[in-house]
Specification:
alpha/beta, Adenylosuccinate Synthetase, subunit A, domain 2, ten-stranded mixed β-sheet, binds inosinic acid
């Protein structure tokens, strides 16, 4: 079982970094295929906490090659800071990190273009992480983008900077006069090119060769299915394909070479900030309790996350659009104290019952969740290492959650540390144990 894709089943922050870390112990390559510095993957290893925005979580293993795939967008100051931090902590980043020459660069003007704007009247505000993600992907699709490989050709790079600043001049409040800024950026990028050169390669060849040689390759998604630009709650999504198909287009590996797809979901649901739609939002007091226990604050922005009940309608959608083999459920322990727990099995909209996740966010906003309610277990689950170790009420909850989601659960995580997990599918052991 050499290739495995891990994606998020909800709206991001499902604990993918932690699961990737768990499953990448025997991986030769860990590859990220979309998104950029909007992601924040938190991993705790032997009491040490790592927050990674761009570099795949596998970097924590000294013998794993980590690839930044062509589908990603790179903010260079963030990348260099991350490299330096990891080097200071003794990790051999120079040996293990490889960056696709086809990945796109988030330019300083992309960050400026991603600053919040007042919506036109009657429109809902599009909230972003303000990391320049949307403008970078806009330029990629408009074929104006700057790729990592371009940085290594000074003349081409200078030309692209000039053309782009000229094109965008009117819409950016630049820190300098446009002409001056061109010169500043050309100098800055010449220096950055020297710093990045050693990492740049044709990663498509590298990954495909590794697969052909039978190596274990793990593809690490960022964000989640609900934020996918095609299948999420458009337009309240991110600008990339966060779903499993993105692992192919974001790396240059064909679908026939993907063996296994798993998605990570929390035992409840969260969504960053005040963003809607979020059908299973909990009432205030309960939400606060879950937020504190689950430490639901953004790793990238520090913003509090809204908390809600597990949404099996979204989970079924995730199972379908990712072609999931199984779900990995995280943070079951966060629900330990609650007297009752709920799972949303359908939405009610007027006299209509919806079983399938709709494309229309206005409709979704009007939907009321239809819940199944279960008694809580009110005892700690963090020490459980097998399904039988869980209290009966927790087992009942997990069984019904899997049934309503339409996929088996392969791992349940019950705490922050590497070993706080219950492995239900031994075939994933190739990667983990
Ligand atoms: P962008 O990706 O910066 O364009 O932000 C678009 C939306 O996706 C915003 O609502 C963000 O809060 C959300 N988002 C982007 N990355 C993440 C993530 O890693 N976790 C949770 N939400 C995210």
């Amino acid at each position: 079982m050499p290739t495995l894709v891990i994606v998020g089943a909800q709206w991001g922050d499902e604990g993918k970094g932690r699961i990737t870390d768990l499953l990448s112990r025997n991986a030769h390559l860990v590859v990220r295929f979309q998104g950029g510095a909007n992601a924040g993957h938190t991993v705790v290893v032997e009491g040490e906490k790592y927050i990674l925005h761009l570099i795949p979580s596998g970097i924590i293993h000294a013998d794993t090659t980590c690839v930044i795939g062509n589908g990603m967008v790179l903010d260079l100051p963030t990348l260099f800071k991350e490299i330096e931090d990891l080097k200071e902590r003794g990790l051999p980043v120079e040996k293990n990190l490889v960056i696709s020459d086809r990945a796109h660069v988030t330019m300083p003007y992309h960050r400026l273009l991603d600053m919040p704007k007042e919506p036109r009247s009657g429109q809902r505000k599009l909230v972003t992480t303000q990391r320049g993600i949307r403008p970078t992907y806009v330029d990629k699709v408009a074929r104006l983008g700057v790729r990592v490989g371009d940085m290594l050709c000074p003349d081409l790079m200078a030309e692209k900077i000039r053309t782009n600043l000229h094109e965008k001049g009117g819409s950016i409040e630049s820190p300098q006069e446009a002409d001056e800024w061109v010169d500043v950026l050309i100098c800055e990028f010449a220096e950055w090119a020297d710093r990045i050169r050693r990492y740049v390669a044709n990663t498509t060849v590298l990954i495909n060769r590794a697969i052909d040689e039978g190596k274990n390759v793990l593809f690490e998604g960022a964000q989640g299915t609900g934020l996918d630009v095609d299948f999420g709650t458009y337009p309240f999504v991110t600008s990339s394909n966060t779903t499993a198909g993105g692992a192919c287009t974001g790396t240059g590996v064909g679908p026939s070479k993907i063996d296994r797809v798993v998605a990570v979901a929390k035992a409840y649901a969260t969504r960053v900030g005040d963003e809607r739609p979020f059908p299973t939002l909990m009432p205030d007091g309960l939400e606060q309790q879950v937020r504190e226990k689950g430490n639901e604050y953004g790793a990238t922005t520090g913003r509090p996350r809204r908390c809600g009940w597990y949404d099996a309608v979204l989970a079924r959608h995730a199972v379908m659009v990712n072609g999931l083999h199984s779900l990995v459920v995280t943070k079951l322990d966060v629900l330990d104290d609650l007297p009752t727990v709920k799972v949303c099995r359908a939405y009610r909209c007027g006299d209509q019952t919806l079983e399938d996740f709709p494309a229309d966010v206005e409709l979704l906003d009007k939907c009321e969740p239809v819940y199944e309610e279960f008694p809580g277990w009110q005892t700690t689950t963090s020490n459980a290492r097998s399904f039988e170790d869980l209290p009966e009420a927790a087992r009942r909850y997990m069984n019904r959650l899997a049934e309503l989601s339409g996929a088996p659960v392969s791992i349940i995580s019950v705490g922050q540390s590497r070993n706080d997990a219950i492995m239900l599918d031994p075939s994933l052991e190739t990667y983990a144990f």
